[in-house]
Model the fold of this input.
Amino acid sequence: MMLYQRFAAAVARHGDRTAIEVDGAAVSYRQLAELAENLAARIHRESAVVPARIGLPAERNLLAYAGYLAIQRLGKSVVPVNPAFPESRTRYMLTASGTGLVLTGSPSAPPHVDGIPVPPLIDDPEAEAYLLFTSGSTGTPKGVPIRQGNVSAFLDAVKDRYGLAPGDRCSQSFDLTFDLSVFDLFAVWSSGATLVVPSRNDLLRPVRFIADNALTHWFSVPSVISKAQASGRLTANSMPSLRHSLFAGEPLTWPQARAWKAAAPGSTLANLYGPTELTIACCDYALPADPADWRDTPNGVVPIGLPYPGLEHAVLDESGQPASEGELCMRGPQRFDGYLDPQANHGRFHPAVASDPAVPRDHWYRTGDRVNTREGLLNFLGRDDQQVKVSGYRVELGEVEAALRALDGVADAVVVAVDDEAGALGLHAVCLAPGSDPVRLRAELVGRLPGYMVPRRVLTVDQLPSNSNGKVDRRAVADLVRSGTS
Done:
């Protein structure tokens, strides 16, 4: 079933219920559907040919949510773009994807359009639902097209899994450029629940936002927990309304889970895992209701559990053979068909794929994540490559390094991810740039990279640390960052 068809079914069942609360307004399912249909009609009227991909500014206003639905109503693909990203990056994304139209305008409702019929929506699981760009190791973002059938398989797997029902009040913490936002929108709307949209300032005070809005469901990256702890607001029973809490996008630690459970004792906790290429999430682990039954893991990270029904997984060693510990590989109806640029498929699938425009669907997707199995559950051990998660966003350290090397005076650069005192992962850069001003280097990056990819600090050195083989010693670089010296 197409995303819009799921929403339309909820409108038929729950038309008078509140679908979304945003900017102080409560909008019913029927009202939101009227806005989406009207906007779809306007796009259809003003376009000689409605393009296959339509850009959507990822903002927290009514037009963005109605626009997402309008694009789905037309059977087209959403390409979310963050207005805060550097213009050059956005331009690249729109050009590479062939996006033929970008929605713009006031956050207020679009004007009513009469007498402009919108073609019937045909149920096509092969149609592209959205296209997201993730950080690329070559210095260029990678486009990840996701089909309607991929999303449908995910929503079918989770529809009864997290207690969503009419009357529930659910968070929308994720930026629309982040695929976890698709859960926020369509898992919630498929159930007849209400999506409650926090402002940017609300996101800085999640505990207060949850309590003030009597949320029943919260979904975010785990680092939100550490930040709330550091602020002193995550106190015992401070979120009594919560019944279900979901975390994804980066490893969830046991201390984080215990702190959240103490603040929301009536809530279940679930740890979700999944790269964008496997459509939103592909594994989960529901923690036992009683923390006394929680069993710690050697690395202090909550297990990622087991795959959703219909998905297969394999743990493979470097030669591609089954192993007790190795790279997690997966396949099934949630697996995407390959990157926007087929060259990016190389090395990402088992068996080997060169530059096929579409990867055979029985091939395994290589996640690049190392796991093992302990007591029947998958445990996340870390990355095989240099990809990290910062505030839930995937970042290839190589992309940030490439941006630094493009700056005047920088001969080489190493970027490392280091935990701060609150346990949140942050990027730091060490540049081989004698005589350069590190403040200037960081300032120049702000205009080239999204905020979450800009290192917190840049150090300049006359020589990068190296090991006995002459290779850059990343561990020594991280120690240099921690010492704060150059």
Remarks:
- The mean pLDDT is 92.
- The longest strand covers residues 364-374.
- The longest helix spans residues 29-46.
